[in-house]
Structure formats: C-alpha cells, structure tokens
Design brief:
This protein has helices spanning 59-67, 80-83, 147-150, 152-156, 166-174, 179-186, 194-209, 220-225, 233-243, 303-306, 338-347, 374-384, and strands at residues 270-271, 315-316. The chain is an all-alpha fold and 399 residues long. It has a two-stranded antiparallel sheet with strand order 1-2. The radius of gyration is 21 Å and the shape is globular. Residues 1-21 and 27-48 have low confidence and may be disordered. It binds heme C (2 copies).
C-alpha cells in the first residue's frame, strides 16, 4: 500500500507552535465561523502498523509495550489499551457508554475518546475570559494541557487504574519485563529516583502516541486528496453537504492546514451542542463515595478547566477520522449510530429530543435545524466512511 503519510513534511519531536489565540469563538459571537484549521507536526518513530512487536530498541517501542502493560493498575489487570484498544480506533471495545475501571462496578462519567491524532492537539490555550475561545489540550474538557500531563490522570484515578501513587507504578515496572529496556533507554540509574522513573515511563508512552500508528493518514479521503482515487457519487455529494449545508467543516476541518498537514477533521475548539443527559450513563449508579450527586450530576465540561461559567457544558470537537469504526458517540456516549448523530444535528430544534444538560451555553447558530434530507444524511455517512484508515484500493477486475 502506498504510504500517503510520507507526503507530509514530518518534523521531529516537538509540535510546532502554530496556535493563534482567539481562533475559536463559538455561539452568537461567531458572526463568521472563525475557527481555524488544526494542524501541527508530529514525529514518526516506529515501524508499520500490525507487524509483530519488535525487540525494544526505541522509546516509542517501549511506550507501546507499556501502553498494553496490565501491571500499571492496582490491582494488576488494566492497561491504557483496555479503554483505548487499537482494535476499535483506540476506544473502549467493551459495550456501554462509559468505561469500567480496574475495580469492578466503578465507571467513569465520560466516554473513552479515540486517542488517534491527539498528538496533533496543540497545548491547551485558555479562553482569556472570552467564553468558547479555548483551544487544544487533552480530555473532553482540555484539563490536561499536553499528552505528558494526561498520563498520570488515569493512572491515579480510583475509577480507572486506581494506583495510590506514581511510585506504585514505578515499582510495578521495575519488577517487570520492561525494567531493563527503561534503564537502557533512559539511563542505568533511572530507578534511583521514582519521579525520574515515572517521567521516563510517561515519556515513552508519549513517544508511542507520536508514531504513525496513532496518526496513519491512510484513509480513502487521503488517497483522494493525493489524487490516486475517486470518490463515489454518494461520497462526493456527502462531502459537499459536509462542507456546505451541513456546516460540519466549520468545526471538523476538512482541508489541509497551511503547513501541509492533511485535514484532521477537528479544529480542537470547544462547543456545547445541546446534548441531553444520557440516562444510561452507569456513572449515575456508582457508590456515593465516588459520585455523591448520583443522577443529578451535571457534566460542566470546559468550565472545569477555565473556571469561566460561559464555558459550561462545552466539549472538545472530535476528529472524525475513523469515526465509522468507533462509537457510541459524544462525551456521554448517548448515540450509537452515525444516523442518530446526524439526525440530532439536523433536527435538534424541531422537538423530539430531551432538554440539553447545560442549556445556558448551547450553540444555537451552527446546528439544530439543518434541513437535510435522508438522502443527504446517507451521503454524509458514506463520506464519513472514507475517513477510515487502512484504505486499500479495490483492484480493477480483469476478465
Ligand atoms: C478506565 C478506562 C481508561 C483507561 C485505563 C485509560 N483511559 Fe485514557 N481516557 C479515558 C476516558 C474516559 C477519557 C476521557 C476523560 C475525560 O475527558 O475526562 C480518556 C482520555 C484520554 C486521552 C485524551 C484524548 C482526547 O481525545 O482528549 C488520552 C491521550 C488518553 N486517555 C490516554 C491514555 C493513556 C496513555 C492511558 C494509560 C496510562 C489511559 N488513557 C488509560 C479512559 C481510560
Ligand atoms: C459548532 C461546531 C460543530 C459543528 C458545526 C459540527 N460538529 Fe460534530 N462535534 C462537535 C463537538 C464539540 C463534538 C463533541 C461534542 C460532545 O461530545 O459534547 C462533536 C462530535 C461529533 C461526532 C462524535 C464523535 C465521537 O467520536 O464521539 C460526530 C460523528 C460529529 N461530531 C459529526 C458531525 C457532523 C456530521 C456535522 C455536520 C452535520 C458536525 N459534526 C458539525 C462540534 C461540531
């Protein structure tokens, strides 16, 4: 298969500083859809997807091994890959809207997002007091500014990997098969300082997250942009609706960024789509020790991070790359099919949906009554299916 990713200019290690403050503005203030395209550069340090695990000679290979290491939880049994499995676009393959932690019965309150292409999310930039203008970061609410800052969160969360300290994780790694590779790659005395050792574990996983395994850019749409394949009639119509009447591309960027990075299908901005609560969220019924409010819990999203009440209930725009091979959808996993998702965008304001969980900041301008026909919706779904990585052109039939 041709490697379309190789067309990109790949710069090493550091993400470029490309973020212009203030490009994310949502709600009524956005007279013109002012969200810019996301983009950045990412290093590609490992080999090809799907090959057997190589001997550990690079930090990214070590990170790959640690990502799937179930001794990183207390008790042992859960890895990053439990909730971010490569088999389902690095989301949780287990059924249900949110994920169960290593302690049976303890569920988180948000859906496990895909972490593909998240190496392209810029370091979080707050809103400077202007509601809805924050950009980037990690998590649905951007509260971890970088991938590096993200890793300790699930490691220490009692409803996820449940470790008492990062030192506990270091001890587990030191006793396991990756102690030697960690010493080889980060220094023979790395375990003499638990903080340095944890930072090394964290760094290795981040290096893995920067590989082409997470950002392959090998979808049919990439091949189309490279001029090596045509879209079908339905996919072409779907792309036109996506960019036009549907208004999707205003937030899910569909064109390459200025530095040539292929489209990421997110601008990494935040919005409140007016989603209702998901009554089936298992978080509502976990013990009061972990969720004292029960079903009355309200997810305030971006406000958690910025403290700005104007950001209440906003969540990060998701990349739509590989969207057809994951689900359920949205931060609370409320919808299970793309048909339901697009119906919501199309007819939210026509009745038929429960009230928004956070009505105050609902985006009333860019969605809610799009006037799309069922044919339009089918076409958009056909187009979204072109965003699945690993596309292999069908060989021409020979007679
Ligand atoms: C029990 C399930 C679970 C485990 C285990 C877990 N995660 Fe997650 N992950 C989640 C959920 C849920 C979120 C979203 C949380 C939020 O927004 O508050 C998330 C978010 C993320 C994000 C941000 C992605 C985005 O789109 O914003 C990254 C990156 C990530 N996880 C990586 C990891 C790594 C690395 C590990 C292992 C150290 C890990 N996760 C372990 C469930 C899990
Ligand atoms: C105003 C910006 C905006 C517009 C316009 C928009 N989206 Fe979104 N999209 C978002 C945000 C924000 C989320 C995450 C919201 C949440 O979970 O609370 C999202 C999530 C999604 C998801 C779920 C992804 C996942 O992994 O859970 C899909 C699918 C989607 N959008 C498709 C579309 C389509 C198709 C259109 C056009 C009809 C569209 N979007 C228009 C901002 C937007």
């Amino acid at each position: 298969m041709p490697n379309f990713a190789s067309r990109r200019k790949i710069s090493t290690v550091k993400l470029e500083k490309w973020v212009v403050a203030g490009i994310c503005v949502s709600g009524i203030a956005a007279a013109i859809s002012s969200c810019g395209g996301g983009g950045g550069s990412v290093s590609s340090t490992t080999g090809t997807t799907g090959s057997p695990p190589p001997a550990i000679t690079t930090k990214a290979q070590l990170g790959k091994a640690l990502f799937s290491d179930t001794s990183l939880s207390t008790p042992a049994g859960q890895s990053c890959g439990t909730c971010h499995s490569e088999t389902k676009d690095f989301t949780d393959p287990r059924p249900g809207p949110t994920s169960e932690g290593v302690i049976p019965g303890l569920f988180g309150f948000r859906h496990s997002p895909s972490i593909r292409y998240m190496a392209y999310s810029p370091t979080f930039v707050g809103d400077g007091g202007q509601a809805g203008s924050a950009i980037g970061g990690q998590f649905w609410d951007g509260r971890a500014p970088t991938l590096t800052a993200q890793i300790p969160v699930p490691i220490l969360n009692p409803t996820e990997m449940n470790n008492a300290s990062t030192a506990a994780v270091v001890a587990a790694v030191q006793a396991g098969p990756y102690a030697k590779p960690l010493e080889n790659l980060y220094g023979a005395s790395i375990f003499s300082n638990p903080t340095s050792a944890f930072n090394a574990i964290d760094d290795a996983i981040v290096q893995f997250e920067h590989t082409s395994e997470f950002s392959p850019f090998t979808s049919k749409y990439d091949a189309f942009l490279a001029g090596t394949v045509q879209l079908t009639a339905s996919e072409t119509r779907g792309l036109a609706v996506f960019n036009g009447q549907g208004g999707c591309a205003g937030c899910h960027t569909s064109s390459p960024s200025l530095d040539g990075t292929p489209p990421l299908f997110t601008n990494f901005c935040y919005a409140n789509l007016g989603l209702p609560k998901n009554p089936n969220n298992p978080y509502y019924t976990i013990p009061a020790k972990y969720n004292p409010l029960g079903a009355n819990f309200v997810d305030i999203g971006l406000q958690t991070t910025t403290g700005n009440p104007g950001d209440r209930g906003m969540f990060m725009t998701q990349s739509l790359r590989n969207v057809a091979v994951r689900g359920p959808y949205f931060h609370n996993g409320i919808f299970t099919t793309l048909q339901q998702v697009i119906n919501f965008y199309n007819t939210r304001d026509l009745g038929g949906f429960p009230t928004p969980e956070v009505p105050q900041t609902e985006d009333l301008t860019e969605l809610g009554n799009l006037g799309l026909t069922q044919q339009n919706i089918s076409d958009v779904i056909a187009f979204l299916n072109t965003l699945t990585d690993g596309y292999t052109p069908t060989p021409a039939i020979r007679y």
